[in-house]
Amino acid sequence: MWPFFFWAFVVGGSICVIGQLLMDVGKLTPAHTLSTLVVSGAVLELFGLYEPLIDFAGAGATIPITSFGNALLHGAMQEAEKHGVIGVLTGMFEVTSSGISAAIIFGFIGALIFKPKG
């Protein structure tokens, strides 16, 4: 069990280090860094490399933002096989809607509970 935690920490931390290096060394804005990491996850999924990474690192690969790119492409490809071109659009929304909805709901609840600094 401990090796699994170790590799999740190493893989997740490595993704975060790459993002930090893009901002510090590459002088990319946070928005450009975010976009780069999402696209990187989609490209890794395109070549069939992200699912093995998830199997190897678990949450170390599913928690970082690269997993969002993976989910977008994975859902689009799955639904495209079933429904054709329209499945590309519906698949992206179908797979990612629960995560996006949870982020919105929990963000709203957090805004109701906590006071912003003024």
From TrEMBL:
Ion transport is among the record's keywords: no
* Keywords on record: Membrane, Transmembrane, Transmembrane helix
Any stretches that span the bilayer, and where are they? 6-23, 30-50, 85-114
Q: Does the keyword Lipid biosynthesis apply?
A: no
Pfam family example for this protein?
Answer: SpoVAC_SpoVAEB
Domain of life, per the record?
Bacteria
What PANTHER family does UniProt report for this protein, alphabetically? STAGE V SPORULATION PROTEIN AC-RELATED, STAGE V SPORULATION PROTEIN AEB
Query: What is the protein's given name?
Result: Stage V sporulation protein AE
Origin organism of this chain? Jeotgalibacillus proteolyticus
Q: Which gene encodes it?
A: spoVAE
